[in-house]
Amino acid sequence: MEFHCWGISHKSTSLEVREKFAFNKDEIDQIITKLITETPFSNGIFLSTCNRTEFYSFCLRTDIKKFDLYVEKVIDKKLGVRKNDQFLFAGHEAFKHLLRVMTGIDSMIVGEPDIFGQVKKSLKNSQKHNFVNSELDDVFSKAIHLSKDIRTETNLSKNPLSIASLVESEIQKNNLKEVMVIGAGEVGKTLIKRLVEKDYKIDLFNRSSVSIEGIVSKPLDQLKENLNQNKVIVVAASGNAPFITSEDMIGMDAKLIFDLAIPRNLDEKIKELPSVELLILDEISRMVEFNLKGRKNAVTRAESIISESAETEFLRLKNKKILNKEQKRVRASLSKTKHDALDKAKLRIAKGDSVEDIIDDLANEISSKNAFHVSKILDQSISKKR
User: Fold this and answer.
1) DSSP for 323-386, written as a single string
2) Which uninterrupted H or E stretch holds 178?
3) pLDDT (mean) for 124-130
């Protein structure tokens, strides 16, 4: 079994395809449960964010190549994703990709810190389902440790940018002060915290009643009657139907709207209205160019460290596994040698042989056989590596 990573991301495919693979926590729990019971995968970590869906596992290449089909099977829905939209890494290349993801240099917003926590949550979720074996745990523990070091050493963690910070920047640039936020997830919380610090007027709407930074949410059924009181609308939650339709916006004052949900949660016709500027996640990439220029040195340094260390660190993990296995074999072999020699010694004592001779022969036999078995096992181990 080899370490593999299957995935789709903002780099490999369009938002339309990524929306098909966007799953909430309950859906991910159901997928993992069925992957365990209905597919060949005995371990795995399922990562689903707004910009990527990935699956990491020690498994057969023939199985991971068909992962999209297994997802279709367990959710009982045809997704129809092309092979060109997907990527697949194996061995140290999969480990290298994991480091790039966790440090944020593979993100749409380069260096953003949220992905690190999202990967850790995905690991904990698989652990909760007993879907993480010792090999997968070792790989992710090492990746967490290395990613922290790389972010610190390269200053990627200094003044981190996120979707929330870019949205705030765009709002500020347009000199707008009244903001409606729909959804109280991580993006919504982070954005509200930033806006409160700068004295923005905030209307928060959420399915359940919550309070963020003193802002108490209003129920979703009051959303439409409050539309015209806000110059900015930020959709940071998904729903079964669009929160706002083009009909709702007719006759409204000019609006700046951000649809950050995956799948998107606004009527697409809204962007045809002359009074509305609508930005979706992929369009935020227009803002990323500025972000990348300021982080070019940090990203280059991080790429260099990852390229230099990924193969070496992954090989160490692999050798650790081999060493542990060989140590068990050595211990078992030495234990058998000891018991065999002791049995012979007991028979000689019963025959009345000299105890001094028996002890001397016993020591020589154990020493000789131990050396032989250790040498043999090491030779076998070296041959396997070749």
Assistant:
1) HHHHHHHHHHHHHHHHHHHHHHHHHHHHHT--HHHHHHHHHHHHHHHHHHHHHHHHHHHHHHH-
2) strand 178-182
3) 97
pLDDT greater than 60 at residue 382: no
- Structure tokens of 105? 């240099």
Whole-number pLDDT of residue 321: 62
pTM > 0.70: yes
Return the H-helix or E-strand segment holding 205.
strand 201-205
Model confidence at 372, pLDDT cuts 50, 70, 90, reads: low
328-347 average pLDDT score: 72
Query: Residue 22 is which amino acid?
Result: A
CATH architecture of 163-286: 3-Layer(aba) Sandwich (3.40)
Whole-angstrom Cα distance, residue 237 to residue 220?
Answer: 11
Note the pLDDT tens digit of each residue in 271-312: 888 888 998 887 876 666 655 666 778 888 999 999 988 888
Strand 178-182 to strand 2-9: parallel, antiparallel, or no bridges (unpaired)? Answer: unpaired
Q: Is the pLDDT of residue 137 over 70?
A: yes
User: Closest Cα partner for 146 from 367, 353, 311?
Assistant: 311
Structure tokens at 15: 């938002």
Separation CA 46–CA 132 (nearest Å):
11
How far is Cα 111 from Cα 109, in angstroms, rounded to an integer? 6
* Residue type for position 218: K
The pLDDT of residue 2 is: 93
Burial degree of 123 (CB within 10 A; 0-12, 13-18, 19+): buried
Is the sign of the CA dihedral 200, 201, 203, 208 positive or negative? positive
Q: What is the pLDDT of residue 290?
A: 58
Give yes or no for a contact between 220 and 242, defined as CB atoms under 8 angstroms apart.
no
Fold (topology level) of 2-159: Beta Polymerase; domain 2 (3.30.460)
Helix 134-153 vs helix 92-103: crossing angle, to nearest 10: 50
Q: What is the pLDDT of residues 220-254, one digit of tens each?
A: 999 988 888 889 999 988 777 788 888 888 888 88
Place of tokens 């070091």: 149
